[in-house]
Amino acid sequence: MIMRKTSLILLGAAAGIAVTLIATQPRILLDGARAQAAAADTYRQLSLFGDVFERVRADYVEKPDDSKLIESAINGMLAGLDPHSSYMDSKSFRDMQVQTRGEFGGLGIEVTMEDGLIKVVAPIDETPAAKAGIMANDIITHLDDEPVQGLTLNQAVEKMRGPENSKIKLKIMRKGQEKPIEVSITRARIQVRSVRSHLEGDDVGFIRVTQFNEQTTEGLKKAITDLSAQAGDKLKGFVIDLRNNPGGLLDQAISVSDAFLEKGEIVSTRGRNAEETQRFNARAGDLTKGISPDIEVLQEVPEELKARTDTRGEASLRGHLKAEGDEQTGSQSYIPPDPKDDKALHTALDLIRGIQKNSAYPPNPKSAVPN
After folding, report:
1. What are the DSSP calls for 36-61, one per residue?
2. Per-domain boundaries in the chain
3. Interatomic CA distance for residues 139 and 180, integer angstroms
4. What is the pLDDT of residues 150-192, one digit of tens each?
5. Which fold has domain 103-191?
6. C-beta of residue 262 within 8 angstroms of C-beta of residue 364
7. pTM score of the predicted model
8. N or C: which terminus of the chain carries fewer CB neighbours within 10 A?
9. Distance (Å, whole) CA 16 – CA 98
């Protein structure tokens, strides 16, 4: 900016040059001094980090792993930026790719951690785990005769995954069985079902999207096609369930949203520089004509679960990035284990079938605006 201004003035009077240089030189010096001071301060802080790093290496009671120290420092730096930034080493990146690809070599069970042990949430249909008789609520205590106590959930999952046709031995505790059950399972190629669907009655299609991986959009389209064929002329509408969906690939989330929108902006991303801003707009073509998430239905939550099922929105997280528009609170996360107690689902079914009335349903396509 200064150089261009000076070159333009050189075409004018000499007096103008002198005045301009006198006016701009102090600013140049001041800006340079500030930049040098900021850089010096940064290098002092880095020097301090180096001193602490060397002190830990030399004096900590147990000799630490240098690479882990550096990785922890990087993670600490990124964690201070916002609630979602983190560092991925090559292994973590490969694991993420497996997750988003939706295919891997494994057993075919959904698991969680409970009291330091691995609890089976559900076996996936037609997988080695299901064929071996693994059941929901089974507790896995050993993998290849090694206890899972002390492992993280990710570490246990990593041990259960592996090449196709390789074997693993599980020791399981099952309610009602006095002795542990031992079972040997041969791993196979597992495809994560990010979309599950069925007919509610014979007139409403129910589609649950559990995550956004590479299989999601195609799975959604297939579910709509299959349910439409099954219900035929009886089909009154669809319920799309996104509750407790943890997210995933942005392009898949956009594609799924686009499947139910005729026009308008779906989402935008903003970087530090203006040229990094991206806006994604819906293309014409609504696969179902009438999905409308404008009616809130709150579920009664058991007292003992309220603390664990209270979901905070992005706006309530410390250090979150500010949105361009209004920031929303979190949505309710609790889903009753028994479908007959699912208030949100039954309200949706009643609205579609005309049993309940609401001014927001059915929506007016002409006035609908994506939100």
Report:
1. HHHHHHHHHHHHHHHHHHHHHHHHSS
2. 2-64, 103-191, 195-299+335-353
3. 10
4. 888 878 888 999 899 999 999 999 888 889 999 999 999 887 7
5. Pdz3 Domain (2.30.42)
6. no
7. 0.64
8. N
9. 66
